[in-house]
Structures are given as structure tokens and as C-alpha cells.
User: Fold this.
Amino acid sequence: MMDHKVCIITGASGGIGSRIVKRFLEEGYHVVMTDLKADLIKEAIEKNRFDRNKVTVCPMDITVEEAVKSGIRDIVSRLGRIDALVNAAGICGSYDRITDYSYENFKKVYEVNVFGTFLMIQNVLPEMVRKQQGSIVNFGSVSGMRGYSFEVGYGSSKWAVIGMSQTVANEYGSKGIRCNSVSPGWVNTCMMEKTIENYRKLGIEDPENWITYGSIRRPARPEEIADAVYFLCSERASYINGANIVVDGGMTIK
Ligand SMILES: NC(=O)c1ccc[n+]([C@@H]2O[C@H](COP(=O)([O-])OP(=O)(O)OC[C@H]3O[C@@H](n4cnc5c(N)ncnc54)[C@H](O)[C@@H]3O)[C@@H](O)[C@H]2O)c1
Assistant:
């Protein structure tokens, strides 16, 4: 069995996911980096100069049940433990007014954000239950707390993730497993750029002005989100279960 604690991170080559990998590596974890393609993961390893001996590359599409099942089975047989799971993979889909919002787009957003997160949790839980310990962090968003315009699929998918996190917390708290969600406001990643592009496509002339920040008046740096995620997985958060930690610079108190 692996001596170091093991954390699985989905969306591990993304803007926020790769910062979370860095944070867990700094804390001495062995990190299982999962994302859609091995190339994406390898690129992130090179770009961030992660130590190849301290990461396991595990490409999988989290919306494919068989891929998730066999991926997790493989991780358990190779590493022998799963101490933490961070579900950072997510997509925002395209933006539209509800009357124009395509059903296909809605379903795709749910497949990744909601069903993919569920499949990861469902397949990781048995190993955590076996050890009677573990921590799971899922990604909500302020969009899953307010009904922002043009993102009916994304926003409602994030409400679902926050709710699902509470269900896991309720069912598994007595087995030593905590589950929480982190809800960022704007974070400086390509997802934020994609959202601005989405606003532009909708004919909004000043899309940057649609981005509202809290009183801190800037988007989060991905590492600021990674710090909150790591804290939730650490012993320091041993009594935090079923919480939705908002990391939005004060955006939602406005
Ligand atoms: N960037 C923001 O402003 C912001 C705000 C609030 C919440 N979030 C949430 O934070 C999380 C991380 O976002 P990010 O900004 O790093 O986005 P990102 O686009 O940089 O990264 C997302 C990653 O998820 C991966 N992914 C997508 N579909 C997948 C699938 N089917 N299987 C496996 N991996 C898949 C992508 O390849 C990508 O590497 C997401 O859940 C997002 O909804 C982001």
C-alpha cells in the first residue's frame, strides 16, 4: 500500500484542478490526476513541473460509467488507498436565454457536472468506507446559489452538486467520511474566458462588465480556491461536513 496519502483529482489539468494538484503535492500527498485525455494530463505535469513519481496519470471521461469503474478499481489495486477525492471537472456549456437554450447542451452540462461527479463519488466511497475515513470535495459555484441569467443548465447543475454533497455528508458522516462543496465566484481560468466569449456571442456589447466581483474587486487566483479545497480535506476541517464554502471575494453578499 502507498505510504503517502492518496488524493484523486478530476479535471486535474484544468485551471483550478492543476492548482489543487500542486497544493496536495506540497502537503506530501500522492495525487491521481484524472482528466479526459492522457496528453492533457502530461502537458499539465510538464507545465507545472510536477514530480512524475508523485503523480499517477489516469485519463478517463467521468461521464462514462465503465471508464470510472475500471479507473477507480485500477487505482485501488495499484495504490491501495484513497484518502481524498476532489471533483473539479466541470463544463459551463454554451449560454443562452431559456427559450433558446438547447436541450442537448443542458444534458451535456448535467452529464459532466452532476452525473460525472456522482459516478466518481459512488465508485470511490466503498474504498473510503472500508477504511472508515475519507474526505470528498465537490465543485459548486455562486451560480449554484443565485439564478444568474443565460446559464440555466450550468447554474442548476451546480445547485444539484451542492445538494448532492449534503446527501453524501448525511449518509456517510457516521462512517468517517466528510463531504463538502466549494463554491467559487469568478476564477481566472479559461472557463472564465469562455463565459465572456459566451456573453459576446449573445450580443452583449460589454461582456467584461457582466463579470461582477465582490468587494475584493478581482477574480480569484486558482490557488486561492485550491487552498480552500485542501483545508476541507485536512484534519483542521475535521468537524466540517455538508458545508458549502463560498470563495467569492464577497460577491454574493452584495
Ligand atoms: N473558473 C471559474 O470562474 C469557476 C467559477 C465557479 C466554479 N468553477 C468550477 O470549478 C471547476 C474547475 O473549473 P476550471 O475553471 O478549472 O475549468 P477548466 O475548464 O480550466 O477545467 C475543467 C477541467 O475538466 C475537464 N473535463 C471536462 N469534461 C470532463 C469529463 N467528461 N471527464 C473528465 N474531465 C473533464 C476538462 O478537460 C478540464 O481540464 C469546475 O467544476 C467549474 O464549474 C469555476
